[in-house]
Design brief:
This protein is α+β, with helices and mostly antiparallel strands. Bound molecules: adenosine-5'-diphosphate (ADP) and magnesium ion.
């Protein structure tokens, strides 16, 4: 019969009793009893626990109650423990499946906009500065995704919820985690602390004597933390490395590229529209109509982007300065990379750092080192007393000799 609704597929798989009972116990947790740790351990021992999450509704469990309780349980677990990591994975999966977030993720303070317009607008998002109405010393950056009617908002919402969990639960001194979301302000947005020191490139320009190797080590530690937690950054570049009040670098906007892929569906076929060409690994680029080798960023493409950050940090300029994206793409297609900076133009580009940079931008992803190895090498350089900071007058010399 035309127009008749087809029967719903049977969603309820057969689950082990332990997986189902564990889910029930998590949802009915009273917020105190400590036997919840045993419940979690049993849950993860049941092989079908994650499969079971798909059938929450069929089991009569409200997904929101489940994610709210699971998030509270995570707060009480030892940071970075295997159990906490597994719970975060389960939370991420559930939020992604149902397109929901724990209620506590909505920021509670009242935010007000000091300006009418966003401070910056990128391809897919705007960044706004907001103040806490009750305490104007609390300044926040709100990144709102520009999603249109024609986009698949359902799919975007699911990915957004997944990434919000990662950004909120990230916990490392070199990572800018988010405070939460502000659904009353924007449907898809993330709220983070405002970093008054701006991004890393602006910072080294303002502070020419800054210790670049130390900054680089901080960036690499942040990336290593993400990779250890199975998170690919996907858009590592200086505007996404912000400097906190103590002068330490913090990585932001990790994982967002998985969402931006679904934004602006009309222009979806424009080549390389989802990446910043000069930081992007060659295997992710469409060059001369040849589709990219890799569909998604990987930990090795992050390492390539890290090499570009190394160049920026020591030269104080973005990679391939003065070249348009099209020329950069041409250079990359010929296997070319930024030239070795002249000593006066690059404080900190010592032979040791240069060697690491070259290994990280290898054309073959497999030949690039893991970020963990890069970190060890950089730390070794720092410990061996490799020149860390430029002389206070290096920029004078640079201006004379460049
Ligand atoms: N929490 C923050 N504190 C200060 N500046 C920020 C913050 N978040 C983003 N910015 C700045 O806002 C600008 C726009 O950011 P974004 O929309 O992420 O674009 P981009 O693609 O350049 O990273 C960047 O220069 C970035 O450094
Ligand atoms: Mg950014």
């Amino acid at each position: 019969m035309p127009g008749a609704t087809p029967p719903l597929p049977a969603v309820m798989a057969t689950h082990t009793a332990s997986a189902e009972t564990s889910l029930m116990k998590i949802v009915s947790w009273d917020g105190k009893s400590r036997d919840i740790y045993q419940v979690l351990t049993t849950a993860f021992e049941a092989k079908d626990y994650l499969v079971c999450i798909r059938d929450l509704q069929a089991l009569g469990i409200d997904p929101s109650s489940y994610v709210n309780n699971l998030d509270k349980i995570i707060d009480g677990l030892l940071a970075e423990s295997e159990l906490q990591k597994r719970c975060i994975r389960a939370l991420r999966k559930t939020c992604g499946l149902y397109g929901i977030l724990p209620t506590s993720y909505a920021v509670t303070c009242t935010l007000s906009k000091p300006g009418k317009r966003p401070l910056a607008s990128g391809g897919f998002a705007d960044v706004w500065k907001f103040l806490d109405e009750d305490n104007h010393d609390h300044v926040f950056a709100v990144k709102s995704l520009r999603v249109c009617e024609r986009d698949d908002t359902n799919e975007i919402n699911k990915k957004y919820c997944k990434e919000v969990i990662v950004c909120k639960r990230a916990n490392h001194p070199n990572i800018l985690s988010i405070e939460g979301v502000a659904p009353k302000l924007f449907e898809f947005c993330m709220v983070s602390q405002w970093m008054t020191n701006g991004d890393i490139l602006g910072y080294v320009t303002k502070h020419p004597g800054a210790n670049r190797l130390e900054l680089l080590i901080g960036v690499t530690r942040g990336l290593n933390y993400l990779h250890n937690n199975e998170v690919i950054h996907g858009d590592l570049k200086s505007p996404n490395i912000l400097i906190d009040a103590s002068g330490s670098p913090r990585l932001s906007d990790f994982g967002l590229c998985s969402i931006t892929k679904n934004i602006d569906s009309v222009n979806a076929s424009t080549p390389n529209r989802n990446c910043t060409i000069r930081y992007c690994a060659p295997e992710l680029l469409e060059i001369n109509g040849v589709p990219p080798l890799e569909k998604k960023p990987t930990n090795k493409s992050d390492v390539y982007s890290l090499s570009m950050v190394m160049v920026e940090l020591v030269t104080g300029k973005m990679p391939y300065p003065g070249s348009q994206d099209a020329s950069v793409l041409f250079l990359i297609s010929k296997g070319r990379r930024p030239p070795r900076p002249r000593p006066f133009g690059a404080p900190g580009m010592t032979p040791g750092v240069w060697k690491i940079t070259k290994r990280c931008w290898h054309g073959k992803a497999k030949k690039r080192p893991e970020v963990k190895a890069v970190l060890q090498d950089l730390e070794k350089l720092a410990n061996s007393g490799e020149e860390l900071s430029p002389s206070p007058f290096w920029h004078m010399w640079r201006d004379i000799f460049e």
